[in-house]
Amino acid sequence: MAKPSFVEFGSQPIEKYRSVWVGDFDEIVAAADEARAEFAGRTVWHVSSTSLGGGVAEMLRSFLPYARDAGADNRWVVLSERPLFFGITKRIHNKLHGHPGDGGSLGEAERAVYEEILTDSAAQVLELGKPGDVFFLHDPQTAGLIPTIADAGFTTIWRCHVGVDKINEHVAEAINFLMPYVKRADAFVFSRRDYVWEGLPMEKAFLMPPAIDAFSPKNQELEPSVVKAILGKIGLSADNPEINPPFIRSDGSPGEIVSEAEILQVEPLPDDAFLIAQISRWDVLKDHEGLLECFAEYLGDTEAHLALIGPSSGAVADDPEGPAVQSRIFAAWNEMPEDLRRRIHIVNLPMNDFDENGAMVNAIQRRADVVVQKSLVEGFGLTVCEAMWKAKPVVASAIGGINDQIVDGESGMLVEDPTDLEAFADAFRKLINDPGLAERMGEAAQQRVVEQFLAIPRLIGYARLIGSVHDKRAASEPDQQTA
Ligand code: UDP
Asked: From the CB of 382, is ligand 1 less than 6 Å away?
């Protein structure tokens, strides 16, 4: 039986943020003091289903090292489940996003498999805790652990990274499936108020919009010459750098890009090409196929290039549909006329070195003239923030948390109907034809991220959340705190 694995993430000084934080930095220092008091003698165990690829892993890596510096003993464990489990949890994921997924149901048979598979993990995870510890469980894959952990007397917090604007029958089915587990948690964390499930007590709900780390390999400043060298090294452009392009690793040590990407392209991206890029997991809900169709149908007469970037096939353990989605994208590309194929690049980034992968994403986002996120549903959409931080104009579907990030026409462009290909093409055209507009939007975008979406202010909410659940349990179950 495979054991859950630990993810190491080190510690990062919160002081780094003093230079970028626009608010009163003393508030952050005070939150760190509060955190130190709340966390004294107790560990917060974050449990997720993957350490790679996707927003959850990204956010934990962005935030936990700073929380550790602030005195919080955070640890991060990843479940090692079997493919059958991720088949079911991917179905839950799709339905929670309002889509039928593979068309299967979430009935008693699926519940039995889900619970049976999680039984071993629950026992293993429980062994980690000592009295007073908190288990912070992320997303549907871990929700089934809540009752066992709660029964053992530990505080449990469930973090839902998924949310939709409208509840349809699929969403209702997924919520219904998860509710018996989730309602046992001491607190629930959602990204937006609208995402909090009906039926959960509001007084236990906390809101925490995702945020990015300005200094991670994915978001750190890169010189234009390094951006150019990284694109050459991975094979997206024709440049052949003499030395391996440098970047700073998450732990502050020097890193180098040594790997190449697997790329489907007729020829490399020319240096002066206008580049539209989408960076996403290979998931139908990111609608890569719609983007290809939009490009083929409406942008054939431009000189623009399109790059679809994602993790190397099969690298994201909890996302079993990736290879199938990518085969469809390859098939669509193959059917296109040569002139279009010459301008479309499909890039699989290596995932074996998380920091190196982040630096590659960073370089591509910085090289892009426009970043697009044409998702059909999106809980938050970290890639939007990442590009905005790099002062890029983003064209994105007006859905979910993307609406919180972009102010339409000011800090990016929102397309009301995510399936409206012509509207996406119009937005791209405006930016292709008006570099001044692109620049103004990019600057406003960066400002917005600085004000609202950097990781460090989240420390304040985190310390309060841990404090409040602990206080509540201390009041209601005094025996368990000393057990
Ligand atoms: N990502 C990455 N490498 C890739 C593709 C995506 O590191 O090849 C990252 C991306 O930069 C972002 C995260 O995965 O940080 C995706 O988060 P988002 O919230 O956009 O979507 P999710 O995958 O959670 O649905």
From this structure: yes
Whole-structure pTM value: 0.91
Residues 201 and 260 in one domain: no
C-alpha 227/C-alpha 392 separation (Å) is 15
| DSSP H stretches of helix in 394-457 | 402-405, 421-433, 435-452
Count the neighbouring beta carbons within 10 Å of the beta carbon of residue 119.
12
User: Which residues, 6+ apart, have CB-to-CB distance to 436 below 8 Å?
Assistant: none
Number of domains in the chain: 2
- Pull the structure tokens for residue 297: 């149908």
Classified as helix, coil or strand, 241 is coil
CATH number of 97's domain: 3.40.50.2000
Please work out whether the CB of residue 311 comes within 6 Å of at least one atom of ligand 1. Answer: yes
Per-residue pLDDT tens digits for 89-126: 999 999 999 999 899 999 999 999 999 989 989 999 99
- Could you tell me the maximum CA-CA distance found in the chain, to the nearest angstrom? 71
CA gap 141, 128 in Å, rounded: 19
* Helical spans, DSSP H, in 349-420: 354-367, 382-389, 402-405
Cβ of 211 less than 6 Å from ligand 1: no
Which of 371, 383, 405 is the best mutation target for the ligand 1 pocket, counting ligand atoms within 8 Å of the beta carbon and taking the most?
383
Structural domain harbouring 391: 224-452
Dump pLDDT digits (tens) for 154-163: 999 999 999 9
Element (H, E) at 34: helix 25-39
CB burial class (10 A; 0-12, 13-18, 19+) of residue 22? exposed
